[in-house]
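Q: Sequence in, structure out?
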Amino acid sequence: MSLPLILIVDDNPGNLAVIGELLQPGYAVRAANSGPRALKLARMSPQPDLILLDVMMPEMDGYEVMRRLREAPETATIPVILLTALDSLEDEERGLLQGAMDYITKPIRAPILMARVRAQIELKLAREIMRDRNNWLEAEVARRMEETLRIQDVTVHALARLAEARDPETGKHLLRTQEYVRTLARRLQRDVRFAELIDDHMVALLAKSAPLHDIGKVGIPDSVLLKPGKLDADEWALMKTHARIGADAISNAERDVAHPMEFLRIAKQIARSHHEHWDGSGYPDGLVGEAIPVAARLMALADVYDALISRRVYKQAIPFARACEMIVAERGRHFDPAVLDAFVDCAAEFQSIALRLADDGMFAAVAAGR
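A: Exactly. Output:
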């Protein structure tokens, strides 16, 4: 292990020699006879662990050297002990206020110098140990947080696929709708009406929560969920209960965790309200306009778009252009006008997502009508 390095700064060669002899062989020593030379040596690698700095020097005094050391990021944290014949309280206060760690008056007494140097070297070592420990702890917290988020994402998708597994035709619907919601949210960030509500953190929460929108379908009987034809009135009434079932399931999950989780709050809004209509004609609560949570408004459009362009046993896929026309026609009825306008701005991105995450044969029937 290398010896601690101490930079001695004094314009008097005799003082440099005496202090250097006192410090060796316990410390490595570097000497400077002027302020400019001290600043240059302080930046050299390896940097000093401590600087003993004379105050009264021609050209550049110790206070000016201190100021420049503290201004430069590469030397700002090097501890400094001021050495001076000035012994007034004002001089000592000035040096300490400028960042000196200690203040020793001349003539130098060897025991005091050695004790102060040892104390500062030990403090520096302790700070470095603490800094390294803190850096390790921060890295470990970040690693564990990342691992927790990965587990959380896997859990969300596993839960979402419980519903998806009941309906094998939905394919990559979860992935596509998740990306549609993310795209809409990012576009709405540029809208002054949503800028404060939808920050980058909210975009991430919306995307994380979106796959749970149809989790309630696990409670719908196969005879209804997988029926190839049109549902009758009773079957349709039963199908619509999936919104409440999903929201209730997420509410139960919220009660089981020790601390509130934002993404579950958003997921519950999406699960319950993504079939609400802007004009109040949706379900399960008949919410109108801005009473519908923003997350659910985004999910509503994403879900309808994907349903329109996807092939099902009871219908063919609709061409992208026609799907866009049908959605635009629902401005102010099914969809929030602001969300609809955002969709129009990024319709090309929606189509790109759909093509990138398409299921096999998904668009075979509409290839000519893109």
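The chain is about 55% helix and 5% strand.
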